[in-house]
Structure prediction request, 309 residues.
Amino acid sequence: MPRTRFPKQTSEASAAPTVQEDNADQLQGPAVEVAKPPIPLSPDAEILARAQAGDHHAFAHLYGLHKRRIYSLCLRMVGNVAEAEDLTQEAFLQLHRKIATFRGDSAFSTWLHRLAINVVLMHLRKKGLPLMSLDEAMEPSYDDGPGRSFGAPDLSLTGSIDRLALERAVAALPAGYRLIFVLHDVEGFEHNEIASMLDCSVGNSKSQLHKARLKLRDALRQSLRKGGRR
Amino acid sequence: MTIDPKSMSCEEFQSQLAELVGSGADVGNHPHIRECDNCRRLYQDLQTIADAAKQLFPDQQPEDDLWERIESAIKKGDS
Prediction:
């Protein structure tokens, strides 16, 4: 399956009004106000605007456009179909409550992704995982982080990885690391997009992703060692 | 203070690795990587993990009845 880069998909809706560029400022002479015809909203933006105005059919259409990516994010974070469906439901119920507050400062899909991330993190907190907020997700104080790799060369992954072993290792990551890894390496978001979604710096996003990969490397090498002893 | 890439230690190199990788630098041709087997292996492992991640957890669709549950909750005023 090809890698999905959600923010670049054409189904993204944005309530930001489109402004037609023209060359009026290049004209000489007195400025003349020229009435411009209104630019029609794109179909996605129109659906969003209708949903914001309370149109139930438009909201159902929005659900159809975004259910796959929101459900997939939830499933990647909790690894359980029933929980992922409950979280998807909660995310869309929150969307229904809050959709009128979307002002188009970011792409709608990014805004919705952020909303879903908060739903997931809240759920993980309720389950008793040591995650109190996005800040703590980004700075997991309960974990000193993976070891670096100084000294003599050690067991290498040699360019190939057992997919199931990697999925198990991802599932075992602390939720903050797992979130960054899923957003960047699995879903294809860029660091600046993740920083915007999680309200953190780009440097923090890069650093947490690096630590997540180091932890996965540690886990995979442990798995290889165990396999070698059998 | 900028460290000379040719003379940096493994610790110094690895402390910069997150930023180097995240900024899209050509880390494979970094002077330290060219000289240091250990850091080269570390970098290759991390790249292997990042590449393998693209094949993980493919997109999934929720069950068809999920919308009915959401719609029902909206009608009940749960949202």
Observations:
- Chain A is about 55% helix and 0% strand.
- Chain A touches chain B through 58 residues (CB under 8 Å).
- The two ends of chain A are 34 Å apart (CA to CA).
